[in-house]
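Section 3.1: Structural characterization of target chains.
Under the original work plan, the team committed to producing a structural model for every single-chain target entering the pipeline before any wet-lab resources were allocated. The record below documents one such target. The sequence was received from the expression subgroup and is listed exactly as submitted; it comprises 169 residues.
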Amino acid sequence: MKYSIWLIVVMFVLLAQPAYSVDLDKDGIPDDQDPSLFDYDNDGMTDEWENAHGTRWDVNDARLDHDNDGISNLQEYRKYVLEGPSITDRLKGISLETETILLISLAIGIAFVITGIALHLHKKRKESKPAEQPRPAIQRPVASRPPGRETKPEAAPPESTPIKPITPK
């Protein structure tokens, strides 16, 4: 049981780690949230972020609203840096193969959890019931006759006397 719990913990930790948390410059800020990375057009948004979100990396487009949601590109970038990517931003880069692998990994993890719980409950139930010992078979002695002897007819049982009922006085 100890191994299945550790396996569950390891699977959870691996699945909980976001795939985007790479820190190449080792400054403690993930590269997708690091404002000090290269910014060719000096608009306050990194070129990597601009490429990922469909804005131009070579034109200062900080005041524009590329997705027409009422929030400027720079405001969206700052929100992204401060709060991290939204779940929809995280899922945009996931290909079908990656999504399939994640779903299969999740299904395997759930199967391990269910199997571990079932085995644990089965073991508890087995320990709580005493094992039934099989009863030994009763062997009756078989009368054997020596070869060559004839069998005698059995005598009729003696007549029994009827039992008289006891009457109270």
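The mean pLDDT is 73.
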